[in-house]
Amino acid sequence: MTFSSVNTIWVLLGAALVFFMQAGFSLRTAVTSDFHARTGDMKTDKSLAQLAAESASFCYVQTKDLTHRGDMLHYDTASQHELGARYFEAFQQFCSRSDEKK
Predict the structure, then answer these.
(1) pLDDT tens across 5-49, in order?
(2) pLDDT for res 81
(3) Is 68 helix (H, G, I), strand (E, B) or coil?
(4) Residue 11 in contact with residue 42, Cβ under 8 Å?
């Protein structure tokens, strides 16, 4: 069996996509949770908050007070800026948790 650089690159790219897939699923779950929270289902919201408190590999960003464009998924410009700031703050907290473990 021979190894080629093209195959190695594809394997590494696939591994990176799988690695970041968890973050994508978590983000989608958080958005879905916010939708359920706005429609009255608070169990999902509480479960995600509990997961964020117990797991060092999970962050949770609240979006309840942001202004959406009617579909509870897309936000206006000011809310998008605020959401970006919240994501950055959560990322900083996540990085500081991983630094503490080192």
Answers:
(1) 888 898 899 888 887 776 666 666 555 555 555 555 567 677 777
(2) 93
(3) strand
(4) no
Query: Whole domain around residue 54: which residue ranges?
Result: 5-101
Structure tokens at 7: 């195959």
Q: What angle do CA 101, 90, 16 make, to 5 degrees?
A: 70
Domain count, the chain: 1
pTM of the predicted structure, to 2 decimals: 0.52
> Rounded to 5 degrees, what are φ and ψ at 21?
-65, -35
Question: Given its phi and psi angles, is residue 43 left (phi above 0), alpha (psi -120 to 50 degrees) or beta?
Answer: alpha
Which residues are within 8 A (CB) of 84 and not within 5 positions of it... i.e. 6 or more apart? none
